[in-house]
Amino acid sequence: MTTRLTAGDPLGRVEDRIGHRFQDRRLLEQALTHASALASGDTGGSYQRLEFLGDRVLGLAVASMLHRHYPRADEGELARRLNHMVKRETCAEIAQDLKLGDAMRISQSEAQTGGRTKTALLADICEAVIAAIYLDAGMATAEDFVRRQWEPRMLTFSGPLRDAKTTLQEWAQARSLPAPTYSVIDRSGPDHAPVFVVGVKVEGARPAEGRGGSKRIAEQAAAEAMLRREGVWND
């Protein structure tokens, strides 16, 4: 994509960084708008709906990359790699690299409490931008964006592929506690793109929740949430 002069054009600078020139800039504006910047009770113009869609587009794009790059990996390994690549922290890192927080529309009070650097908000707008690209130019263009940002991380990742459920079970056993129990709290979305919310309980600890496109992925997310909250995982 040819870069144009965008000194007086904040959205243009965002387009330069993400590598996509929008046909409908309203999509990009919405992707960068936090609910706090809107009138009370109005969330229709915020990034929330786009974030919902972008999460699914990202998951499919990364799953496709993993399937292509790791032909010998079994389903379990692919799932662990997927969980690592689409987790909140990874999305937030990419948002930081693209300086999306600087372009976010948020209220003054939210900005004063560090909203532009909050991991959760950065992860949300990253996924919202993916959805905006998808709606503006289609899946192939969205996949190109995901490939540019995620593939280098995927190919250079050398850390352990930790299984959250196994780690949580070992943590409970080390404390002579019963095994963790998982239950589906909610299921939403169409049959071809379901979203599961799963809860996990361990005796003596507050329950935790996770979500994902399958019960297995949601269980892993719930286990990871508890491990992080209990300080077992800190990275």
Automatic annotation (TrEMBL):
> Which InterPro entries does this UniProt record tie to the protein?
dsRBD_dom, RNase_III, RNase_III_dom, RNase_III_sf
* SMART domains linked to this entry: DSRM, RIBOc
Task: Give the top-rank taxon of the lineage listed in the UniProt record for this protein.
Answer: Bacteria
Q: Does the keyword Lipid biosynthesis apply?
A: no
- A GO biological-process term: regulation of gene expression
Q: Where is the active site?
A: 55, 127
Sorted alphabetically, the keyword list is: Cytoplasm, Endonuclease, Hydrolase, Magnesium, Metal-binding, mRNA processing, Nuclease, RNA-binding, rRNA processing, rRNA-binding, tRNA processing
Main EC class of this protein?
A: hydrolase
Recorded hits in CDD domains, A to Z, give:
DSRM_RNAse_III_family, RIBOc
Catalyzed reactions:
Endonucleolytic cleavage to 5'-phosphomonoester
Q: What is this protein called?
A: Ribonuclease 3
Gene source species: Pannonibacter tanglangensis
